[in-house]
Amino acid sequence: MAMTGFRIFKQVPRLLFGTGALDRLDELLPAKQSGEDYYVFVVDDALQVHGIEQRIHPDGRDMVEWFPATAKEPSTAQVDALKQKVVAARGAALPKAVIGIGGGSGMDVAKALSVMLCNEGPSSQYQGWDLVPHAGVYKVGVPTVSGSGAEASRTAVLMGKDRKFGINSDYSMFDAIILDSSLIASVPREQRFHSGMDCYVHCVESLQGTMINELARGNASKALELCKEVFLGDGTDDMLMTASYMGGVSIVNSEVGVCHALSYGLSLELGYRHGFANCVAFNVLDEYYGPWVEDFRKMLDRHNVVLPTRICEKLDSQAMERMVEMTLRMERPLTNALGENWRNEMTREKILALYGEM
Ligand code: ZN
Q1: What is the pLDDT of residues 29-84, one digit of tens each?
Q2: CA of 5 relative to ligand 1 center, distance in Å
C-alpha cells in the first residue's frame, strides 16, 4: 500500500450548529452521576455583561471561572494557576467536563486546563508537538468570537516566559463544540475584524503552503470565499462562524505560514493579541501573498480599520533579536510556506527587514 505522507485527518467528533444552540449544551455534556459531580466553565469575562450564565445555568457544584481574555494572550502561568484552583477546591475529584466559552484565548485555556488536570507538572513542559501522555477531561468549546479556529484545532497556544507556543496534541482537541452565531453578534467591530482576519490568513497560508492536500484545500477555499462574503459583501454571522471552523479544520491538516511566524514575535514583545498581530504582519507580506494582501487592504478600508505604523521604532536591539528568534522557531510554518530550504530565504536580515516595514 502506498504511503501518502499526510497525518491522520483529525476532527472534532460532535458539533451542534445554529442560532440558540448553546441552550442545548446539556445534550453534549456527560451526565452527572452523583451529587459530587461537577463541571468547570472557563468563560471570557467580557461575556459577564451578556447574561451568559443564565444560558449555561451552572448548579451549585459547578465552577465558573471568568477568564480575562481581552487583557493579553493567555499564559502557561494562568493555566497552571487555574489547575491549582480546581485541585484546591475539589482535591482529586476531576470535573466531568471542562467547557470553554470565549474567543481563541478562552477556548485555548479550557483545552489546556482539560489536559493539565490529567497530566503532571507545569503546562510549559507540554508546549510542542505530541508531548502530552494522557488524555484530558472531556471538553466542550463554544466560540463567542469567530476567526481563530480554536474550536476546530489541536492547538492550545500559550505564552511562556520567553516563547509563545502551542500545546499541540490530539488530546488538546475538543470532544464537542457548539457553533451558535447569536453569541458573536455583540463582538466589538475591531475585534470582530481582527479575529476574522485570523481566519482569512489561515486560509491563505494553508492554500499557499507546501503541506496542502485536497481535503484541506476544500475547507480552506470555501472558508476564504465565506470570509470575502462577510468582509467585502454582506455575509452573515453564520457564514463567519462556518468560515472560522473550516479555516481551523484546514489548518489542523496543513499548516500556517509566514504571517503567523512573524506575528508570534509581535505578540511576544509587544503583547499584541493574535488576530491583531496577524493583521499588522499580513499587511507587509505582498511578496508572499500578493493578491490576498490586496483584498485584505480592501477589507481594512471597508471596515475603517486603521493599523499602526512604525511599531518597532521603540524596540531596542535585544527586543528585535527576541522577535527574530521567535520567528526562526516557527519551523513548521516556515517550511510550509517556503519549503525545506526556508532558512536560505527567511534569514535574520530578512526577518528584521519585514518587522521594520510594519
Ligand atoms: Zn491564527
Answers
A1: 999 999 999 999 999 998 887 788 888 999 999 999 999 877 788 999 999 999 99
A2: 24
Claim to verify: residue 335 and residue 211 sit in the same structural domain:
yes
Does residue 227 share a domain with residue 299?
A: yes
- Residue 19 has a CB neighbour count (10 Å cut-off) of 14
Cα-to-centroid distance, 143 and ligand 1 (Å): 14
Q: How much distance in Å is there from the Cα of 319 to the middle of ligand 1?
A: 22
Say if residue 197 is in the same domain as residue 293. Answer: yes
Amino acid at 225: E
Ligand 1 mean position to 274 CA, how many Å? Answer: 7
C-alpha cell at 70: 481581552
- Is 209 among the domain residues? yes
Q: What is the CATH number of the domain that holds 139?
A: 3.40.50.1970
Question: How many angstroms does the Cα of residue 231 sit away from the middle of ligand 1?
Answer: 17
The total domain count for the chain is 2
Question: Is residue 3 domain-resident?
Answer: no
Residue 28 lies in domain: 14-184
DSSP 162: S
Residues 149 and 245 in one domain: no
Q: Report the alpha-carbon distance of residue 201 to residue 205 in Å, rounded.
A: 6
Residues 157/78, Cβ–Cβ less than 8 Å:
no
pTM: 0.94
| Residues 230 and 344 occupy one common structural domain | yes
What's the CA-to-centroid distance between 195 and ligand 1, angstroms?
Answer: 8
Instruction: Using alpha carbons, select from 280, 355, 276, 287 the residue that is nearest to residue 319.
Output: 355
Query: Cα of 202 to ligand 1 centre, how many Å?
Result: 6
C-alpha cell at 229: 462574503
